[in-house]
Each structure stands twice: as C-alpha cells, then as structure tokens.
Design brief:
Length: 269
Amino acid sequence: MLKNLAGLWRHRALFYVLVARELKARYRGSVLGYFWSLLNPLLMLAVYAFVFAVIFQARGASTSPYALFLFSGLLPWNWLSSALTDAASSLTTHGALLRKILFPAEVLPLVAVVAQGVHFVFALPVLLAGLVLGSLGVFGTSVPIGWPLVQAVPLLALEGVFLSGVGLFLAALTVHFRDMKDLLATALSLWFFATPILYALSDVKQERVRALLVLNPAAPLFDAWRDALFYSRWIEPSRWGVLFAIAGVAFLAGYALFDRLRDSYPEAV
C-alpha cells in the first residue's frame, strides 16, 4: 500500500496533466469558459437572496440571512456530490486508458476529486463577496465576518482527503457492480438531508434524531464549514481532531479496498 502511494508521487506530472485536461474539457467550446465557475454560484446566491429576502419576508418570515447560511453549506456539498459521482465512474469511463498505459489506477478517481475541488475554489470568492455584503446587512440581519475564515484552508484539505477516500472506495466497487451509479444517486439524495446543510445540528431538538445525524461522517465537516464561513467562529481543537480522524480513516479504508482489487481493473473495465 505504501509502495503504491509512493508511486502516486512519481506520476504527479501525469496527475497534473489529467486535472488540466478535465478542467479544459468542461469548458471546451464555451464562450465564457472558466467564468462559469463564478457565474453559476453567483446566480445561485442571487436566487437564494431573492427567495429568502423578498418572497419569504413578504410572508412575514424573517429568514434573510438564511440565503448565506444555505449557500455556505451548499458549496462544499456541491463539491462532495460532483466529485463522488465523477470518481465513482472514473475507471469505467477511462477503461481504454487503463488498458493501454501503465500508471497507478488511483490517479483517475483522485483527478475527479481535485478537478471538482478547483471548481469549488473558484466559487469561494462569490461566497466571500456574499459574506462581505451580509456583514453590511444587505441580506437583512447582519452576519459576522472575520479571521475564522482562514479555517477554510485546512477544511478544504480535509474534505479533499475525505472525498479521495470515499471516491476510491466507490470507484473500486463501480468496476464490479455497475448498479453503483444508480445507487449512488439515491444515496446522495438521502445523504444530503442527513447532512447539516438546510439546518444546523443545534437546530435538531429531538436528542435521538440528533444522535443519529451525528453518526453521519460528513456532519462534523459541514458543521465546521458553517462555523468557519457563516458564523465566523473558531473551531475547537477537539473538533479538529475528529475531522482529522474521519478524513484519515476514510482515506485509508477507501485506499485499502481500491488497492485490494487493483489487479482486476484492466479486465473488468
């Protein structure tokens, strides 16, 4: 396992080339190109702001900051869902490449995670602009903004490690069980509602329900994103320990399964 991990570093040039190819392929033939990475989240934020600041307020609901609350959870979720969807099908999609060229197969799901992570990074300035406007009270009740935003850097790395592990796990399974694509779509829909995106864990009053939601490995990560971005709070050291543990276990477990089934990939795809 360690030998194969070292092989990833030796093939880093191939990794960079494939990530660049993924990014270019997405916008090939597009007039706006990479600007779509900013325009899509910008339109999303504008829609949320209109719905919650105008429509809901007209009904007497004071939910204006909820647009930013929701947006700060949806951006990392979009990375999760798109990265896992692409990573799961990465080996079957590039089966011809696996049969013709000798390189570590794990490069392909990791490229999917990193490429979608780049789109996430491109969208962060839109969220930052929204938070600045929110601190000025543009969305209604003022929201705090400060140095806790720098926690986005380690959170970005931790989510990347977590998604890499889950992506490797799904890629290995999808090669042998093609139904995984449909199962994953359903699982992501259920996972979305079990993850604190539309709500905060502290909002769940039923203790049994909250205890079940905490078992979701993504729950601590998204709670941390919300604290760092929306609430502008410093995350406690104990919570960082939990996040490191979840990301590490996810990566090691995913890579262990991927490595175990490695020899079957060229024939199965």
